[in-house]
User: Fold Methyltransferase type 11 domain-containing protein from Candidatus Taylorbacteria bacterium RIFCSPHIGHO2_02_49_25.
Amino acid sequence: MNRKDYWNRSYLEYWKRRVAESGKEGETSNVISGDAKTEDDAVYEFIFEKHPMQKGSVLDVGCAWGRMFPVFKKLRQRITGVDISRAMIEEARKDFAGDTSVEGLYEAPAEELPFPDGKFDNVACLAVFDATFQDKALYEFLRVLKTNGMLYLTGKNDAYEDDDALALNAEEGARKKNHPNYFTDTKAMLRQLEKQGQKIIASYFFPRRGDFGKLNYVTDMPQKFYEYFLVVRKKASSKPFKPFSDSMSKTFRTEQQK
Ligand SMILES: C[S@@+](CC[C@H](N)C(=O)[O-])C[C@H]1O[C@@H](n2cnc3c(N)ncnc32)[C@H](O)[C@@H]1O
Assistant:
């Protein structure tokens, strides 16, 4: 299956159901029985409050139907959304028709953003980076940011705890569904960002699957962890990155060899 076709109407309905149950009572998902719930907006609002956006514009990469737009509107941002999926962008166009905070909605992949260098004050890529060709996408995020612009980025680390059964199940399930899935060598990515001269403003590490939704984090990078949320300030022009992600986590590979 072409990766673009994966993000279709039925994925849209699925993700809507997962977002709808987030933040409601109970820790486990009813959509995927036994899994952790996905994080609700409050988790993102916490980060934006601690590390405020620059005033002006935000590019939401992988915006889906505009799930985060109400949050960005509260922050008085002018919003541009981009998503690889036609179904998602059509839904966003319908839901935000006539909304003057939403300046543009584009069907395009994160790795080829249809914008000139230095256009946006902020870029957010939330719950999407693991579906992208990460080195190419990260280059693009920094390219379209203004100097001093802020990047908000979440992703999955390439080594999580061996006994994190929810993480292992999710990785296995994703592979069965052909869900595009990439795990970051977070240390290698941070090293390259720093080498380029970008400033890491904050890093949050969520040890196990489900900790993100509960805001259970540490700020010193553990050896193994499941997810991260990084806040980066663009300080230098974007340069190409060497690959720093893999389609299979080290934890999963080790488990397979047992
Ligand atoms: C799990 S949803 C997250 C949506 C939204 N950011 C949120 O936090 O609810 C992933 C979204 O990323 C989009 N997506 C996946 N791969 C992409 C890519 N390479 N470029 C742009 N968008 C992508 C999908 O179509 C989908 O809308």
The chain has one domain: 3-12+35-257. Residues 155 and 228 are 6 Å apart (CA to CA). The two ends are 30 Å apart (CA to CA). DSSP finds nine helices and nine strands in the chain.
